[in-house]
Amino acid sequence: AQSVSQHNHHVILSEAASLELGCNYSYGGTVNLFWYVQYPGQHLQLLLKYFSGDPLVKGIKGFEAEFIKSKFSFNLRKPSVQWSDTAEYFCAAINNDMRFGAGTRLTVKP
Amino acid sequence: DTGVSQNPRHKITKRGQNVTFRCDPISEHNRLYWYRQTLGQGPEFLTYFQNEAQLEKSRLLSDRFSAERPKGSFSTLEIQRTEQGDSAMYLCASSFQGPVNTGELFFGEGSRLTVL
Known about the structure:
A: mainly beta, B: mainly beta, 0% helix
């Protein structure tokens, strides 16, 4: 069955710490991968996406993600987090329908 | 505002009543998706449309749930005989699927359902 799994449910970091959030997918065939962010009280917004080409994709607000096909992974990274990055982060994969992981809540302490 | 719009934003109803949510997608988008999200969980896929055709329905979608997109533009999601377990945020998203598919989904603010 098609699924997306995120390893961390809640991550707490101090400002300026580096971030890596794990995401694995189980899809056959071609898949497009996404990271969405949901700030408190707001709707889901796209952070970045991967379709093909360079497996290292850069998104908004200094985020990047690396697609590793052999590991079925698409981990999200940011070298130095800010308090304003506090939000819920969702990995998603699309073949026909789009499936989301359960999300990782990130809390950044000032 | 040319984003995805959903209404009502919040609906409180008694168990057993029927409710209907409406979604107006971005106008040039041919795909429309419905998701359900509960606290601390990711959006769960319910169903999606390509134009007016409903192409896939999740097994989560019981017979009490029905969705339509009659003219390939706006969509409605109806829940009949609501149960307390239906309390959730119902999210609508739209995208454009074409020869060069971007696949990006644009989400609305959601419609929150509370069943008493």
